[in-house]
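Standup notes
- DV: blocked on the single-chain target, sequence here:
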Amino acid sequence: MPEHVTFARNVFIPVTNICRNRCGYCTFRRDPNHPEACLMAEDEVRSILQSGVSAGCTEALFVFGEYAEEVPEYRQMLAELGYSSTVDYVYNLCEMAIEIGMLPHTNAGILSYQELEKLKPVNASMGLMLETVSTLKAHANSPGKKPDIRIRMIEDAGKLKIPFTTGILVGIGETKDDRIASLQKIAEIHEKYDHIQEVIIQNFMPKPGTEMENNAPPTKKEMMETVRFARKILPPDVEVQVAPNLIDPYSLVKCGAGDLGGISPTTIDWINPEAEWPDVEKLRKMLKGLPLRERLSIYPKFIKKEWYGEKLDVLIRSLADNEGYRA
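- DV (later): unblocked, structure below
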């Protein structure tokens, strides 16, 4: 069992839900003509950030549909906000978050080396789920879910010394051997670049209206087994993360998980909107007495290594204690 279990307080900002991928399990994505299709304006984002700071949050999680610029209607929406590039817009939103007092963490799907390089100075950390190294039916209509493309981006983040979050999705048609191979690939990348903070072991949840609505989610036994594999395969300095709004975390902590990710007191989980975040008191009850410790979106190791840009220096120092956790 870990000496403590960590978590972060964040705001979850779904900047756009327009996406080029059509994954068999996703309810986040919208076509541009859908009434719920959106590209959030700066004022909307500012309001969420300000509410988050007031609630004690330290992380601004910016989530995007992947390469929405491939959709002509999205490019028009972006132009109406005064931008020709999503990355330029993300950069400005990250600057806004820093100014308001929150550490940006961007998960925008596939980004090129040059795009990662541009966003690094205004992000305390970044992320991309590997999901799996296998080719699955669930990803048949998702060009961005090709494993080699995702592996390349995770490696590029390592070359740029970006503190990084990745993970696997359990129960989308992969086998046990696929899960092991995916974890081994993540470990191999980290051993080369030393940049992966945490690996999420996330359980698939079937959702009405998707191709996979009738697929069964992974069992508790499968999740426990996968967490054990993760803790055995991953280097000790890579944390294993599970989502406490999707599964009871205590049994998984006993198997080697040590982090519960970001929880938000002010925003919902837009990827799993049916799954309410537990508050800190409920987390403590879930953990049955195990110590809980709040962290930032950048882990202590990377604060000590100073793997962040000058734009973040003052804010990180103001939010972190002398060990690199939340002051």
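- Follow-up: DSSP finds eleven helices and nine strands in the chain.
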